[in-house]
């Protein structure tokens, strides 16, 4: 068993002002994605200015934060937030939903694409390889908060989390998700998107890979205590939300390559 590194969730305290590591991880994710987007901006559209890229990053970040928080409220703990609406603003305590954040990003990108005469999936294919930066950083934030830990286990790298009332050795599932949703997903999408691909294909691959990675990790992650398993006695809410994501992603990739093939046949 590995000792859990005791890290204060508060990175900096300035009197009554406290800056939490969880919030800083979002800044790391947004900043990293912004920097990488700048490196590929000419490949995406050489006519775009840095200012336009900054506008895109701002709206996508807003979609992530607003959608992620509202998604968590709606999907995972609606009664608690109805009883105390002020909890919605306490983002530093955790409680962000990836699937809600994804909906927020889709809405933000749809609006931005319309305002700038860009194709929706053209923009989504540009953004998709950047998203794992934020996902990975967010999982590090979960680990520092000692939240969303895994199920009890006897693997050599198991940890006892200070927030666990039972004090059992558990899977560090936050680190599994960091490795898969952050590192592996970034490498796959960055390499795949480094060459021209049919429109919608990169977005489709993102949906498939994230859905599969999240679905697998959920088997060793402790389900939310107030929700438990929501289907068949073994599927968690995260897994239920990932199933349509995987299917939609597969459909998107099939459509993208069939459409590309049809265009080539028409030209020939």
UniProtKB/TrEMBL annotation:
- Gene Ontology MF terms in the entry: phosphatidylglycerol-prolipoprotein diacylglyceryl transferase activity
Q: Name one GO biological process term.
A: lipoprotein biosynthetic process
Job description of the protein: Catalyzes the transfer of the diacylglyceryl group from phosphatidylglycerol to the sulfhydryl group of the N-terminal cysteine of a prolipoprotein, the first step in the formation of mature lipoproteins.
Q: Which NCBIfam families match?
A: lgt (TIGR00544)
Q: Which UniProt keywords apply?
A: Cell membrane, Lipoprotein, Membrane, Transferase, Transmembrane, Transmembrane helix
Say if the entry is tagged with keyword Lipoprotein: yes
Which Pfam family is one of those matched by this entry?
A: LGT
Q: Name the gene behind this protein.
A: lgt
Q: What class of enzyme is it?
A: transferase
**Which cellular compartments is it found in?**
Cell membrane
- Segments traversing the membrane: 19-36, 56-76, 96-114, 126-144, 175-192, 199-217, 229-255
Identification of the protein by name: Phosphatidylglycerol--prolipoprotein diacylglyceryl transferase
Tell me its EC number(s), please.
Answer: 2.5.1.145
